[in-house]
Amino acid sequence: MPICEPESIDEGLSAPRKEREVAAEVPPADAPAKRRRRRYPWVLVALLAVACVVAWMAAAMLVHNGTAAVPARLEPLTFDFQAVQRHDHLLLTWNRGAKAVRDATAATLTIHDGPEREDVVLDLDTLQRGGVDYFPVFEDVSFGLTLAHTPGGSVSEQAHASLRP
Question: For the whole model, what pTM was predicted?
Answer without folding.
Answer: 0.55
